[in-house]
Structures are given as C-alpha cells and as structure tokens.
Specification:
The protein contains 11 helices and 5 strands. By secondary structure, the protein is an alpha+beta fold.
Length: about 260
C-alpha cells in the first residue's frame, strides 16, 4: 500500500513502486495551447477595408482616429482610446491640436503616442500651408482660413501671426511675431511695419487666436489693428484684414466692418 504525504513514501515502499505510481503526462497535453487571435485584429481589417472602398467620409471621427492609432498602438484595442480622446477634446481636430501633456492624461496615451499625434498634426499644418504658399491669397480665402485654423485654433496661448504679401497678393512669408498669455499678446505696430519693409511686402494680413474659443474681437484688438493700419499707410503697406481664430470659428474684422 502506498500512502502519499506531500510526495514522500512511507511504510515498506521501495523506489520502483514509488516511481511506478507517478502519472505520465502525455505529449499532447505537454504542448502549449496556441493563443487565440485577438478580436480587435479582425476589426482592424474590416475598418481598413471600409476606408479603402468607401473613403474617409464614410468613417466617423472616432473610426478615423482608430485607423491612425492602429500604427501607434499596434498590440491593443484602440477603439476605447479613440473614444476617450474625443470625449476629452471634442473633435478630431481638437485631439490633434491638444498639447502633449493633456494628451497623456487620457488612458492609453503615453509619451511616444502623444508625440506621434503631434507629428501628424504638424504634417497636416504643413500640407495646409503648402496649399496657400505662392497663391493669390485673396482668391484662396477658404484655404487661408483652413490653414490658420489648423495652425492656431487649439493653441493654449495667444499667438500673433502676420502673413506678408507681395504686390500680387501672393504669400511671401508667414511668421509668428509674438506669443503671449491665454488672453493677451503684446503687439508693436512699428515692428510689424519694419518687418514688412524688410521682406519688400506691400500688404499684410494679421491673424491671432483666442484660446477661449470665442473669436469675437475685443476693443483692444480693434484699436491695435487701427494703429497698425495707420503706421502702414505712411509707408505704402496695406492691411487687408485682421482674422481672429477660435475653436468655435473665426471672425474677420473687415467682414464685420470694424476696419
């Protein structure tokens, strides 16, 4: 008789009877069971097929963001991450425009993924700028607005940007002259005119953003614009418009008959 006590023999057992009672594990059971294919991989394939066959307009923002995250987060379900980003920031444009620090506050977004999203945003801005560079700006107004929105709408601080134009109103240079606080940017009319002369520009379009999201011009915005107009007139430099960009849209001072 064999009495088991934590793998040891008792009584008159010998080694042969002890080892003869050890169960033999079959070779089939010893082989590891292969992992099943994660369910999200099939979802990724279907989403890619929809994008390829129906185009980007057939996909809502969260699915388009999913497609982007497939490459950035290769071994995880990205649908919850995409939905969490949109819940936090609102739109796909606002996700790409969000600061790196805020992106990392969303579960599933680490430093590398946050940086990659900003690379995508920078690429989109560069493409938009390429659409307006060298064009006659006044006849490409919507392209200009799209570029300014991509570049400035989601900045956390105010930026004052100047678009310098030649005598045919083609874009010579696009420069951020000043960066301020969340609600104020110092602007110096003499510096605006000086830079226009350096670039041989005959006209400018002024652009700045309101981080609050509301593009309504303030009294200070209007007064500062008039000062730049007066300074430019003396030297033959026209101010075509002053555009204010916000997350909720834009405002044109010329369109509002403020200048």
């Amino acid at each position: 008789m064999i009495v088991w006590k934590r793998g040891r023999m008792t009584g008159d057992d010998d080694e042969r009877s002890f080892f003869s009672e050890v169960p033999v594990r079959s070779a089939a059971k010893a082989r590891p069971v292969p992992d099943e294919k994660p369910g999200y991989l099939g979802h990724r394939d279907r989403l890619r097929e929809r994008f390829a066959s129906a185009g980007p307009d057939a996909l809502p923002d969260y699915e388009l963001l999913e497609l982007l995250l497939f490459r950035l987060i290769p071994r995880s379900d990205t649908k919850p991450v995409a939905k969490a980003l949109l819940a936090r920031f609102g739109t796909l444009a606002e996700v790409l425009g969000a600061p790196i620090g805020l992106l990392q506050e969303v579960k599933g977004i680490g430093p590398a993924v946050a940086l990659d999203l900003k690379v995508v945003a920078a690429t989109a801005q560069r493409m938009a700028r390429g659409e307006v560079h060298g064009r006659e700006i006044l006849s490409s107004w919507q392209l200009l607005l799209d570029y300014c929105r991509a570049a400035m709408a989601f900045e956390a601080r105010e930026q004052f940007r100047i678009l310098f134009l030649d005598k045919k109103n083609a874009l010579i240079s696009d420069e951020v002259q000043q960066t301020g606080t969340v609600d104020h940017t110092p602007v110096y009319p003499r510096e605006v005119v000086k830079r226009a002369l350096e670039l041989s520009a005959t006209a400018v379009i002024l652009v700045h953003n309101h981080p609050s999201g509301d593009p309504t011009p303030s009294r200070a915005d209007i007064e500062m614009t008039k000062e730049i107009i007066d300074a430019g007139k003396r030297l033959g430099i026209a101010v075509h418009d002053h555009i204010i960009i916000g997350r909720k849209g834009y405002a044109s001072m010329k369109g509002l008959l403020l200048i």
